[in-house]
Design goal:
Blueprint: H1 18-25, H2 28-39, E1 46-48, E2 53-55, E3 64-66, E4 68-72, E5 77-83, H3 90-105, E6 118-124, E7 135-138, E8 154-160, H4 170-181, H5 187-200, H6 203-226, H7 233-255, H8 259-265, H9 270-286
Parallel strand pairs: 5-6, 6-8
Antiparallel strand pairs: 1-4, 2-3, 4-5, 7-8
C-alpha cells in the first residue's frame, strides 16, 4: 500500500527546499553572490528571466520547471536548482535541462552561433559521484587529445553540500554551512536567514506555498493513477478519493481551515464537497 507523502509546513522549510530556494534567490541580490561563490568569478549584473520557468519542447514532451533562470550582462545564462529527493540520473537530468534551455534560447531560423554560454548548476545534499568533492565541474572534452575542449560553452556544475570544504573559498564554505544546518557565520548567511524568515512570516507566501504543495502532490498522484492497469478502475477511484480526503485534512490542519474552506481552497467541486463532507466528519470523530 502506498503511503501518502506528508507535506511540510512552511515553517519547516529550509533554503534546501525547492520553494524556499526559488523565493529567496529570485532576489538577484541573493543569487548573484551565490553564483560568484560557486563559479569563483565576478559578475557585473544578472537579470531574472523568470522564476519557476516551465519549458516544454513540443507536443507530449516532458516539461521542465526551472527554479532559477537568469542571464548576466554578457549574455551568459545560468540555471540553478536544488536537488534533495531525486538522487538518480543527475547527469541525464542536467542534460535534459540543458537541452530545454537551448531550445528556448534559439528561436526558429536563428543561427546556432547565437546559442549562449550556459551553466546548469545543481545543488545537492548528497554526492551523486561518491568522490567526496564539494564542487564537480563538467565540460565536453576530447578523449584522444588531452586539453582539447569541445567548445560548445555548455557547463554543468554539481555542488555537493556534504563534500570536503578544504578546496573551496571561505565565502562558499559560509553558504554550504548555512544550507546544511542554518549556521550563520557571516553577512551573506545572515541575509539569507533574514530572507527565509521574511517569507515564513508572510501570509501571502504561506497560502501560495500550500497551494503549490497540495497541487503538486495531486499532480504526482494523478500521474501514478494514470499509469495503473485499466482493469483496476474501481480501485483507482477509491485510492484517489482517499488521497483527496487526506489532502483536505492536511489543509485543514496546516492552515486551520474548516472543511468547507479547505475544499474551496483546493477547488473541489460542490458535488464532491457534498460527498466528502460526511467522510471528513467521520474521520474527524475517529481522531
Amino acid at each position: 500500500m502506498q503511503v501518502q507523502k506528508r507535506i511540510k509546513t512552511i515553517d519547516e522549510l529550509t533554503l534546501m527546499d525547492d520553494y524556499m530556494f526559488s523565493q529567496v534567490m529570485r532576489e538577484t541580490r541573493h543569487l548573484k553572490p551565490l553564483l560568484e561563490f560557486i563559479l569563483n568569478v565576478t559578475i557585473s549584473k544578472i537579470e531574472l528571466i523568470e522564476p519557476q520557468k516551465t519549458e516544454k519542447e513540443g507536443y507530449q514532451s516532458r516539461g521542465v520547471r526551472l527554479d532559477l533562470y537568469v542571464m548576466d550582462d554578457q549574455g551568459t545564462v545560468y540555471n540553478v536548482e536544488v536537488q534533495t529527493t531525486t538522487k538518480k540520473n543527475i547527469p541525464k537530468r542536467m542534460r535534459y535541462y540543458q537541452s530545454t534551455i537551448d531550445v528556448n534560447i534559439l528561436q526558429p531560423g536563428v543561427d546556432y552561433r547565437n546559442l549562449r554560454k550556459t551553466y546548469v548548476i545543481f545543488i545537492c545534499n548528497f554526492d551523486p559521484f561518491e568522490r567526496g568533492r564539494c564542487i564537480y565541474t563538467f565540460e565536453n572534452v576530447c578523449r584522444e587529445v588531452p586539453g582539447l575542449v569541445f567548445g560548445d560553452e555548455a557547463v554543468k556544475i554539481v555542488v555537493n553540500t556534504g563534500g570536503n570544504l578544504d578546496s573551496v573559498s571561505e565565502n562558499l564554505k559560509e553558504v554550504i554551512r548555512y544550507l546544511n544546518d542554518g549556521s550563520i557565520s557571516g553577512k551573506y548567511s545572515q541575509e539569507l536567514d533574514n530572507a527565509v524568515a521574511a517569507i515564513k512570516s508572510s501570509e501571502e507566501r504561506r497560502v501560495e506555498y500550500m497551494t503549490m504543495a497540495i497541487r503538486d502532490l495531486e499532480i504526482r498522484e494523478e500521474g501514478r493513477e494514470e499509469g495503473r492497469e485499466e482493469g483496476r478502475e474501481e480501485g483507482r477511484e477509491e485510492g484517489t478519493e482517499k488521497e483527496r480526503i487526506s489532502n483536505i485534512r492536511t489543509v485543514m490542519r496546516k492552515m486551520k481551515y474548516s472543511a468547507e474552506k479547505a475544499m474551496d481552497f483546493l477547488d473541489i467541486s460542490m458535488e464532491d464537497q457534498e460527498k466528502y463532507a460526511p467522510l471528513l466528519r467521520e474521520s474527524a470523530e475517529k481522531e
